[in-house]
Design brief:
Largest sheet of chain A: none
Number of strands of chain B: 0
Number of helices of chain B: 9
Largest interface: A-B, 17 and 22 residues
Radius of gyration of chain A: 15 Å
Mean pLDDT of chain A: 78
Low-confidence stretches of chain A: none
Oligomer: heterodimer
Number of strands of chain A: 0
Shape of chain A: elongated
Order of helices and strands of chain B: HHHHHHHHH
Mean pLDDT of chain B: 79
Largest sheet of chain B: none
Number of domains of chain B: 1
CATH topology of chain B: Arc Repressor Mutant, subunit A
Shape of chain B: globular
CATH class of chain B: Mainly Alpha
Order of helices and strands of chain A: HH
Strand content of chain A: under 5%
Distance between the termini of chain A: 42 Å
Structural class of chain B: mainly alpha
Distance between the termini of chain B: 66 Å
């Protein structure tokens, strides 16, 4: 597979990532 | 015209200040795309991966040549690194610089690739090769964890200097550009960091 094809696949229908949730979880964990 | 000429260095190469400005602009642009991608912006995310693929290609070509390997493996490594960036994108902290995070992933992928394709394994039956690789991977992972713990004890500026120059293999000029500080400050921070790490390791040994 060509890199351009991979980029197209990876960037299709990406879902938003809730980074604040991760920070909250890290705070709870520490 | 005269003023523009006077800003050019004598040897025609960009100055370290110019390189630093370019690196900072690249970092800012990629980070903006990453943050937009994390928010679900497909076009920004595609632009980010395209931008990163160029940087990663140049990085791997240089590293493979230095390791005495052919550059035909470059594209495989670029793809592996892009997939790893994609899979781990939720672990990126948007308040931190993006490029050190990406290069850390890229470096791990390179090490894994070189370990798995070392020539000694070509004489091993395929059934045994996977076990050897798996067994070999454990101490490496532990070493990475230990190294990360040690580096975490250092002040940010010192840690980044060590990470860029001694771990990622960047030149002092490149590291200075990436950190936005002078070359001499990078050298001082590397020297100071190695001294502190050495002291910490000695203390650990005597415990």
């Amino acid at each position: 597979m060509k890199t351009e094809e991979l980029i197209d696949r990876l960037s299709t229908n990406i879902e938003p990532v809730d980074t604040r949730k991760i920070v909250r979880n890290l705070r709870i964990a520490t | 015209m005269v003023a523009a000429k006077s800003r050019l260095p004598c040897n025609g190469k960009p100055s370290s200040y110019e390189l630093m400005k370019r690196e900072n602009a690249k970092e800012a642009s990629l980070r903006t795309l990453m943050i937009a991608g994390l928010n679900g912006d497909t076009a920004a995310y595609r632009a980010l991966l395209s931008g990163l693929s160029g940087h990663l290609r140049a990085y791997y070509r240089g590293k493979l040549v230095r390791a005495g390997r052919g550059t035909e493996e470059t594209e495989d490594l670029v793809q592996e690194a892009l997939m790893a960036v994609h899979m781990r994108r939720h672990t990126y902290d948007p308040t931190q610089l993006l490029t050190p995070w990406v290069y850390a992933i890229a470096r791990y992928k390179l090490i894994d690739h070189l370990r798995q394709s070392q020539s000694t394994l070509t004489n091993v039956p395929i059934e045994d090769a996977s076990e050897i690789i798996a067994a070999d991977g454990e101490p490496a992972t532990e070493s990475n964890l230990d190294l990360n713990k040690l580096l975490a004890r250092l002040p940010d500026k010192v840690r980044l200097a060590i990470q860029h120059v001694k771990i990622e293999g960047l030149s002092v000029v490149e590291a200075a550009a990436r950190c936005g500080i002078s070359e001499s400050a990078i050298k001082t921070n590397v020297h100071r960091g190695l001294k502190e790490l050495s002291a910490v390791i000695s203390q650990e040994k005597t415990k």
